[in-house]
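Throughout this review, each integer encodes one residue's backbone shape. One record appears below.

===
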Amino acid sequence: MTDDAASLLAAARSGSRRALARLLTAAENGVDLPDCPVPARRAHVVGLTGAPGVGKSTTTAALTRALRDAGRHVAILAIDPSSPFTGGALLGDRIRMSDHAADPGVYIRSMAARGRLGGLAAAVPAATRILDAVGFDVILVETVGVGQSEIDIASAADTTVVLLAPGMGDGIQATKAGLLEIADVLVVNKADRPGADAAVRDVRSALRLAAREPGAWRVPVLAVSAAAGTGVDALVTALEDHLQHATTSGALERRRVQRWRAEVEATVLGELRERAAPLVAASVGEGVQGGEAPHTVARAIVNRMLSQHDPPEG
């Protein structure tokens, strides 16, 4: 770790929000920060996902309040849609969590998705490592909310909470195409509205049809009204129960190893893409004019890159 990064981390651990913000900004901008040392006590990374309008921000705020009442230090990464003008986050989630802005035990950071699909920002893995190293107990990652394909959070979180709401379409349809598979906890939010009981029944019926290995975690379906504060304590208990089960069964360690591997692979591919860009640009004209197939040109570029790093013979 560079002296500057080390000093920023030390300052952030001492409570400097300015230093923490600088570390996270560097991560967002793709600055090559050396790995932050991970303390023995690892933060619980909780992802909250679901379609727009299910109340993710309200649930995140209510969950934060309950965790703070329990004495936990909470960091929130709120992934917002990117501005078409600046590329930055629109900050809608941060505005809705303004009640926690003055709490020294809570840190809120909005991050722009910057056009990335899957509901997350590319800097989320690095940001969670930084927040973990600073000493937060729980890191809540709230996704953009792009629908049924929003499953990237499952690879970034220890526990994934999928939120649904009554009156937003068939409950079973809402859990298809990935969301049912990634959920560790399912929440029917706005449970004080008509149709909530039916939504809970639909989701529980869908879960009974899903294959489940012996001893596997049994996904709870909770009725919550985050705005009214009802059912939030049960959600906190479900998160703690899942973390305990995942720890005991070894699933947590396997998930974190997979997360580490995925980040290494993404970093390698990003580095290769950056190094290959000039070669690709130089090959376009000749390849098109010569009628070569794209995969043939690509293979030639890869071979050229590999040959540049071959050890000398003898």
In short: The first strand starts at residue 44 and ends at 49. Residues 251-289 form the longest helix (39 residues).
